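Students often ask why we bother predicting the structure of a whole assembly rather than each chain alone. The short answer is interfaces. A chain on its own may look different once its partners are present, and contacts between molecules only exist in the joint model. In this exercise we take two input lines together and write out one structure for the complete complex. Read the inputs first and try to guess which parts will touch.
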Amino acid sequence: QKEVEQNSGPLSVPEGAIASLNCTYSDRGSQSFFWYRQYSGKSPELIMSIYSNGDKEDGRFTAQLNKASQYVSLLIRDSQPSDSATYLCALTRSGSARQLTFGSGTQLTVLP
Amino acid sequence: NAGVTQTPKFQVLKTGQSMTLQCAQDMNHNSMYWYRQDPGMGLRLIYYSASEGTTDKGEVPNGYNVSRLNKREFSLRLESAAPSQTSVYFCASSERGAPPDTQYFGPGTRLTVL
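Now the answer. The structure tokens for the assembled complex follow.
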């Protein structure tokens, strides 16, 4: 099992809809979780971080963490064409607090 | 304030050639990182430097060496390039090197090894 698994997509949603991106992980000791957005040909940029179970909201973005189920998700409300990008899930594994482990990313396309 | 800068942006090497990728940050960050990104693989950590004067191996260090020249600069060297090292290389930096740090990424170097 991969350490961090994401559906590679592509995921397509219409403009204004909710986009749901999912990530599962194998290390139960993982403590910190991050969502990065990467536009084609560009570098990743952090959009959300979450450390405790539950929901964390920031504008149109909501991160959800369930450590018991080893699951983290990102919801994008009122999706815009400018949200079209690859979304990378990342986490710190137990014993490696300084190292990020990334999933392979989910490509999202928001259709006008 | 340029953030994280990387040179060169593009590079083509022949198998066996050597080169150094340069990275600099102007945010006074303590920690710096080198990643590679391959299609379908996500980003994988090659080496990192938690603070000036220290370096540690990441997930895929074989074939690479690093130097933390000073607090600003962190270079990645390929001594004898191989086609398997064809990839996009990203440098990143963070303030303290531990969560809840944010890692800031440079624009990347696209390397092709023939």
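Check your guess against this: The interface with chain B takes residues 4, 8, 31-32, 42-46, 49, 51, 88, 90, 92, 97-105 of chain A (CB under 8 Å).
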